[in-house]
Amino acid sequence: MTVGLGLWTRLGVGSRLGLAGMILLVALIIAAGTGVALGTADLSPGEVITIIGGGLGWVPADAASPRDTVVVLQVRLPRVVVAALVGAALGVAGAALQGVFRNPLAEPGVVGVSAGGALGAVIALYFGLTSISRWILPGLAFLGSAAAIAVVLGVAALNTRRLVSSLLLVGIAINALLGAVISMMVATADTDDDLRSIVFWLQGGLEARTWDHVGLIIVPVLFGLVLIMTFARDLNVLGLGDEQARAGGVDVTRTRMIILLLAALITGASVAVSGTISFVGVVVPHAIRLIAGPDHRVLLPASALGGATFLILADLIARTVFAPVVLQVGVITALVGAPVLLWFVVRSTRERL
């Protein structure tokens, strides 16, 4: 293992990124293919390829049964694409926040970004604003995420010497406050449909996701991911401390604000279609950092691919392992992520002793 890590560190950034990207891309393709093939009616890889090829016009459209075609193209494939986009967004948002705050345990849920986005979505549902425009819900989710991160940034900046402790305390306070507001809305929801919709956002799920949901988030998520990755070098310098970053030519305040707003953008867009999904943003970047190192030029794209793969597999487990019962994907990520997070904390504590 030590020899392998030594060889890895001697590789150039381009070689490390290419190797990690190739491995994770293959894993993502396998996970996506498995997610599309498996369900209440299992399909073979050949059948899936034939159906997708028919949808793209590469093979005759009637090469597969109409039922299987609908299942793949209208039910499973959009769900898998949404899972990939949300997982990639949460993975990169977590890696970016960890770099900004120099805390490997920071992630959208810990600092209140997910809670802010969830509250924005719940407000849209509670007051029936979604009937005005389909952009109302993701727009309010983004505004909620941005407001939450603005509060965290403002309070943490008051005491730069204790940024990590300030971050955690403010995050706990924001989560508690927004959780109380959401609980009030749940208790006073007018109809059972409103109540079910709100509970969906709180648990996190990908049920009945369609191509409309893909169209809703693909632009803000991809736009945010690309822009965050352009700040990879700045995140590397920020990891050395604010003074060293300024000496290296980085406008610390401006850079931190832009990265946090971009993290809020992709988190808010994700929350808008999936609800609150925890642990993806902390477990995936931390696991990749242990293997690939802390260089954000590798970490950010690897976190995108790793997050997409992780959430696709979590959703696959949620809808197949306990069939006919279908669990929310947020339950699975918590069941997997919480023990892994505890292991990370214990491992980090032992290394310091």
Automatic annotation (TrEMBL):
It is found in: Cell membrane. GO terms for biological process: siderophore-iron import into cell. GO terms for molecular function: transmembrane transporter activity. GO terms for cellular component: plasma membrane. The chain crosses the membrane at residues 17-38, 77-97, 109-129, 135-155, 167-187, 214-236, 257-286, 325-346. Coiled coil: none annotated. It is a multi-pass membrane protein. Pfam families: FecCD. Keywords: Cell membrane, Membrane, Transmembrane, Transmembrane helix, Transport. Its main location: membrane. Belongs to the binding-protein-dependent transport system permease family. FecCD subfamily. This is Iron complex transport system permease protein. It comes from Microlunatus parietis. The lineage of its organism: Bacteria, Bacillati, Actinomycetota, Actinomycetes, Propionibacteriales.
